Amino acid sequence: MNIILLSGGSGKRLWPLSNDIRSKQFIKIFKKEDGSYESMLQKVYGQIKKVDSEAKVTIATSSTQVSSIHNQLGTQVGISVEPCRRDTFPAIALATAYLVDVMKVSPEEAVVVCPVDPYVNDDYFEALKELSIQAGKGEANLVLMGIEPTYPSEKYGYIIPESKDFTSMVSTFKEKPTVDVAKEYISKGALWNGGVFAYKLGYVLNKAHELIDFKDYYDLFAKYESLTKISFDYAVVEKEDKIQVQRFSGEWKDIGTWNTLTEAMEESIIGKGVMNDTCSKVQIINEMDVPVLAMGLSDVVICASSEGILVSDKEQSSYIKPYVDSFVQQIMFAEKSWGSYKVIDVESGSMTIKVTLNPGNKMNYHSHKNRDEVWVVLSGQGRTIVDGFEQKVKAGDVIAMNAGCKHTVVADTELKLIEVQLGEAISVEDKEKHELD
Amino acid sequence: MNIILLSGGSGKRLWPLSNDIRSKQFIKIFKKEDGSYESMLQKVYGQIKKVDSEAKVTIATSSTQVSSIHNQLGTQVGISVEPCRRDTFPAIALATAYLVDVMKVSPEEAVVVCPVDPYVNDDYFEALKELSIQAGKGEANLVLMGIEPTYPSEKYGYIIPESKDFTSMVSTFKEKPTVDVAKEYISKGALWNGGVFAYKLGYVLNKAHELIDFKDYYDLFAKYESLTKISFDYAVVEKEDKIQVQRFSGEWKDIGTWNTLTEAMEESIIGKGVMNDTCSKVQIINEMDVPVLAMGLSDVVICASSEGILVSDKEQSSYIKPYVDSFVQQIMFAEKSWGSYKVIDVESGSMTIKVTLNPGNKMNYHSHKNRDEVWVVLSGQGRTIVDGFEQKVKAGDVIAMNAGCKHTVVADTELKLIEVQLGEAISVEDKEKHELD
Question: Which of B295, B310, B422 is the closest to A395 by Cβ?
Answer without folding.
Answer: B422
